Amino acid sequence: MRTLTPLKEIIIQIILTTFIVTLVSCGPAQNTEEPGLYNQDNSNRMDNYKISNDSLSNYYRTDNDLLGNDILIDNRSANERINYRLNAQQQKRDSQFLAGAATTNLKQIKAGKLAQKNGKTEEVRELGKMMEDAHQKSQKDLTALAQRKNIQIPTFLDVSAQSDYDEFFYESKDNFDKVYTDMMINLHEESIEDFEKASTESNDTDIKNWAVATLPDLRKHLEHSKECQKKSSHMMHLKKN
Questions:
Q1: Looking at the record's lineage, which domain of life comes first (predicted)?
Q2: Which domain holds residue 162?
Q3: Domain for residue 50, yes or no?
């Protein structure tokens, strides 16, 4: 086999090296697009960035609006809960007022009947009759009002009220007129206080009007009871002498 001279080997190595370098330096095909297309691509990217920022701003603005609405809803809900509690408390007070008035009526009716039977003086017996009639009418009006308002009121004395009545009955055997007139004065003073409060504080127009309309009779009954007490006391004093 013919061997290559050193000079030929060098020449061949140079040729191979040049060929390899040429291949490597060529690389992938260069972008032959016009410069304007590059600028347009940059412009599109900037537009996309602007749109993205606008969308993000709208998102946060919308989110803040929703948060504001949530706060308004929460505030409205809180106010509604407060109003509900206040209304519930007022309805409870109205119910207690009507129930208390009914209990007082029942006491007055029962004690009035007893006064007509056990009164020592004519004044006390007449007072008993007046109280029975007046509070029977009051109870009738009260029952109609309570039914319209869907409020339950007592139709008979409960254990506590009956106990008070029994105590009054036993204490009054020997001194009925004084015990009875004292009871009338105390009951009417308490009723006037309750009715005056309901006439100014109740939010229910019907209950307020009923309280206002009843007050004059209660005040008249109180004065009549005081007068009866004085007359009865004077008559009993005369009888003892």
A1: Bacteria
A2: 72-240
A3: no
Q: Is residue 26 part of a domain?
A: no
Does residue 58 sit within a domain?
Answer: no
**Which H/E stretch holds residue 140?**
helix 122-148
Q: Which pLDDT score, from 0 to 100, does residue 53 have?
A: 52
Tokens of 215: 């007050």
Task: Enumerate residue ranges in the chain where pLDDT < 70.
Answer: 1-76, 78-79, 81-84, 86, 171-173, 234-241
What is the model's pLDDT at position 15?
66
* Interval 150-194: pLDDT, tens: 999 999 988 887 887 787 777 666 788 989 999 999 999 999 999
Tokens of 92: 């409870």
Q: What is the largest CA-CA distance in the chain?
A: 177
The C-alpha atoms of residue 143 and residue 134 are separated, in whole angstroms, by: 14
Radius of gyration of the chain measured on its C-alpha atoms: 50
Dist CA 149 CA 122 (whole Å) = 40
Cα–Cα distance measured from residue 235 to residue 122, given in angstroms and rounded to the nearest whole number = 10
Cα(225)–Cα(186) distance, integer angstroms: 10
pTM (global) more than 0.85: no
CATH number at residue 131: 1.20.1260.10
How many distinct structural domains can be found in the chain?
1
Cα 169 from Cα 139, distance rounded (Å): 22
Q: Please check whether residue 194 lies inside any domain of the structure.
A: yes
